[in-house]
Amino acid sequence: MDRISVMPKFILHDILGRLPDKDAARTSVLSKSWRETWFSFPILSACDKNFINLHELPLYPEGARLLSKLDTFIEYVSKRLRRLHNQGLAVKKLKLNTQYISNKMLVSRFHHVDEWIQMASESGIEVLELNLALSLDKLYNLPLCLTEAKSLTKLVLTGGIRLDPAFLNHSLKFFSVRTLLFHSILLGDERVMKHFISYCPLVEHLSLIHCLLYKPLSVGDPPGSRANYVKSLSLHGLQKLKRVEVQGIEDVYIDAPNLENLCYLAGIVHASFKLNLGSYKNLRWLSLLCVRVETWLLEQLPKIPFLENLILKHCSLCERINISGSQLKFLELTNCSNLKEINIDAPNLLSCEYSGKDEPVISFRGISNQLDVSAHIHLNHQDVDRLRQFIQNIVPQEVLTSLSVFIIQLYPIIESVDILQGSSSPPSIKHMQLSAVSDRQTCYFPVMNWLLSSCFPETISFSLHYSFKLREFMVYFYEMLMGSKKGECYCYSRGPECWWHGLKVVKITHLERIYENVEDLKAMLNALPLPRNYDEEFITFTLEL
């Protein structure tokens, strides 16, 4: 006996809501009861790729077969919505995704989308997500009927959608909206976006990403033919706003005293950042990308009492910067220019990540015993001494016991044994990870000598990704340390003996399994099953003197 089918509808709907869209739709063929459950399900998620064979798109870009599939897609959505609407049932969520059907094909059928939004608005829609193919010459005008969607809590508009200036003449009843996201949409008037936001007094999450403004140069210009990024935005009185993501707008002012998370990507490379961070007393996460970060901005950080995460990516910084925060726990600096000295005063810092082509002096003050430091190093043929120099520039020295170094691009390293050969032990670090080495065996010894003359890692990991071709290098590395290939080192003929000849691989780890006293590493690697996810699998050697 099927005991599930006789459960109350709200329980069955909850079950459908936890299934992937395709699996949920398949339940409609199980029985008459499940079919009725499916057609009363208040969540409608329709994606064109589920109706169209993507392999046919290049062959029939605008052919009759594709138009037929489009009509099937439209009929499916219309039937589902009309049935809910006619029976007075709620539509909690409507999600439409037409990334594979161009707006040029859809334009003659835009009136169906208007009808869908009309029915959803009259049926108590709570979540509306429209993701249309981006096409500036064939845009979908969002219908005015959406202004009556009083129960809307989330509105997501992405792609070829236009907000007409006519919205300025209407009061939007978005009193329940908590999430508002505009991505790559077109504004008929620069005031429309602000108008939308001003009627969302309870909005908590706001994302404005690469929105465009239509500025016609002459009568008759197509709506998207004269589009440029929105240049400025000023928002006031958003008392409930907690999370903001802004990309592509140069001048931004946001009055939101309870803001907790702010992500800003400048409209142009290295634009100035003008927000007064000192006014965001509850800010916990700050992420800045492609911004010119000036001294005054960093001086505001101590005025943000609860700031825990600071991320600076591709920013233009001063040569010497000071970063401080009593509650700062996570710090990331990625490919920031001009840096020569970084002074960090964050006693509760747990993670510090650095990535770039420079080797600045990184100084820590009042460090936590739980601190982890990681560095992603980019190399070229002139960087023979750079790794060791970078490590030596980190102070105090006890930080090195928590340092993990990720080496990117080892191909340019050439034979440099004479430069780096020495008998003294280099700085000790926690971990090193390699992702790529030249597959030429003549490069194996120079690379190994360069690595171990630059630092002494407690553990060293090698990627198992097939394209990195590290297995042969792993075997060479292992056999050299275990003694079978030590005669190949230049120090045997030139002296003095390299310090690392005293190293041993005491254990090998793969997916938390530990191997000890491995006699034939090549055979062990060949016996390993092919990893399901190459990016996440590594072989790790634990080294000891």
Automatic annotation (TrEMBL):
Q: Which residues form the At1g61320/AtMIF1 LRR domain?
A: 87-266, 275-374
Concerning PANTHER family, the annotation shows: F-BOX DOMAIN-CONTAINING PROTEIN, OS02G0105600 PROTEIN
Organism (species): Arachis duranensis (Wild peanut)
Name assigned to this protein: F-box protein At1g49610 isoform X1
The UniProt entry, under Gene3D superfamilies, shows: Ribonuclease Inhibitor
UniProt domain F-box: residue ranges: 5-43
- What gene name is given for the protein in this entry? LOC107464186
